[in-house]
């Protein structure tokens, strides 16, 4: 069962064929790290990310050659059957690139603008306006993405001067969060003056520390109706980045804040970019907000489970599900919501197995060498011997075929 969290009401924004906002699922997205000028490499990575579950993919558009490459990237993706919306990431020279290469804007599903990197002084409003006008001309939404690391210096200086005059001034962190919110809201207001509506805008206010991220999104959520994109920017590598992102996003998502997410992990050298997509999906699935693949519940083991049989079986079943899910999701409706329990002893084994769709409780130390299987809360069969894994997989197959087959 998918747990329902009451999300804050927002406007609805269409990004290509993907809807974003409170009436739509919380979307998982990612970004390529290839050179966008390299069409083949970028297409290959977008396909890899889409296959992993990224529902939108952002690409860097930083040079004229990159802007020229975008239509070819999208054309090749569509020719291979991928409808994944492609988002263009613009900094510093986006206004020039979009005006020089109108086919780039036509091919993209959304444009990302960073108010802190759009220009300085008198050119700031002019260049921001130029990008918004290109978006309007081609009927594309924008994401206004304010970042802690590239905050609009004019907004920051203005608030800094005001803060110095306060009886009780804000701390540096509080001031930075306030400056991000002011920059975001002023940018939204300016985009609306040019002609955009709430149905054209998505907003992000990203920082690299979990507590600050929670604060800034909590503060801005009541102040705007546009959908919010969540992400801990520069989260870091591996476990550190995964834990930091999860700690922040889980709090916000549980409070109903957030309409689309990205987990900005630093990949290890030459490693796949897909890890951040898998982490994003797992956060949503662990919170029971969305279901992407059957969940395998397995105990951590203790002194009762000196045998590692249950660990091997849990690993085997998880791999079996992962390998078969691409086929199952086309043939079986709702299979992604299935829960499979692989337990290691009698303490919690039968109970967890009964609460799962299908569960097996392997024997612990001193227990009879048998493994009862439970289906929808009822004991079904008892397995033993050397073929438990194969027999359990067959039970899973039969259950899926009976319960989830599309009518």
TrEMBL record:
Which residue numbers delimit the IspG TIM-barrel domain?
A: 10-280
Q: Which cofactor does it need?
A: [4Fe-4S] cluster
Family indicated by similarity: Belongs to the IspG family.
Name of the molecule in the record: 4-hydroxy-3-methylbut-2-en-1-yl diphosphate synthase (flavodoxin)
Question: What is known about what this protein does?
Answer: Converts 2C-methyl-D-erythritol 2,4-cyclodiphosphate (ME-2,4cPP) into 1-hydroxy-2-methyl-2-(E)-butenyl 4-diphosphate.
- Which Gene Ontology MF annotations are present? 4 iron, 4 sulfur cluster binding; 4-hydroxy-3-methylbut-2-en-1-yl diphosphate synthase activity (ferredoxin); 4-hydroxy-3-methylbut-2-enyl-diphosphate synthase activity (flavodoxin); iron ion binding
Keywords annotated in UniProt: 4Fe-4S, Iron, Iron-sulfur, Isoprene biosynthesis, Metal-binding, Oxidoreductase
């Amino acid at each position: 069962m998918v747990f329902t969290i009451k999300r804050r009401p927002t406007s609805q924004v269409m990004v290509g064929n993907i809807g974003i906002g409170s009436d739509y699922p919380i979307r998982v997205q990612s970004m390529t790290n290839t050179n966008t000028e390299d069409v083949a490499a970028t297409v290959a990575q977008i396909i890899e990310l889409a296959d992993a579950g990224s529902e939108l993919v952002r690409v860097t558009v930083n040079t004229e050659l990159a802007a020229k490459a975008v239509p070819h990237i999208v054309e090749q993706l569509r020719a291979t059957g991928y409808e994944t919306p492609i988002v263009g990431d613009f900094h510093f020279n986006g206004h020039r690139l979009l005006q020089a290469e109108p086919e780039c804007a036509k091919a993209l599903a959304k444009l990302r603008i960073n108010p802190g990197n759009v220009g300085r002084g008198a050119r700031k409003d002019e260049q921001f306006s130029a990008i918004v006008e290109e978006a309007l001309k081609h009927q594309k939404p924008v994401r206004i993405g304010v970042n802690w690391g590239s905050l609009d210096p004019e907004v920051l200086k203005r608030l800094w001067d005001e803060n110095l005059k306060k009886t009780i001034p804000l701390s540096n962190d509080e001031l930075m969060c306030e400056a991000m919110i002011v920059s975001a809201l002023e940018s939204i207001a300016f985009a609306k003056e040019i002609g955009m509506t709430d149905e054209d805008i998505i907003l992000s206010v990203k920082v690299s520390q979990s507590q600050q991220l929670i604060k800034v999104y909590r503060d801005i959520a009541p102040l705007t109706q546009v959908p919010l994109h969540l992400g801990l920017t520069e989260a870091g590598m591996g476990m550190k980045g995964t834990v930091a992102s999860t700690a922040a996003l889980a709090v916000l998502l549980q409070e109903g804040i957030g309409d689309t997410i990205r987990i900005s992990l630093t990949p290890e050298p030459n490693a796949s970019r897909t890890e951040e997509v898998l982490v994003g999906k797992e956060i949503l699935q662990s919170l029971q907000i969305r279901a992407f693949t059957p969940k395998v519940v397995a105990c951590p083991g203790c002194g009762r489970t000196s045998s590692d049989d249950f660990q091997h079986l849990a690993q085997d079943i998880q791999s079996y599900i992962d390998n078969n899910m691409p086929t199952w999701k086309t043939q079986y409706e709702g299979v992604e919501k299935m829960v499979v329990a692989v337990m290691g002893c009698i303490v919690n084994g039968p109970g967890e197995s009964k609460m799962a769709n299908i569960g097996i409780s392997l024997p612990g130390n001193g227990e009879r060498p048998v493994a009862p299987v439970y289906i929808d809360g009822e004991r079904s069969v008892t397995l033993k011997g050397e073929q438990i894994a194969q027999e359990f997989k067959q039970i899973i197959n039969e259950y899926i075929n009976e319960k989830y087959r599309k009518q």
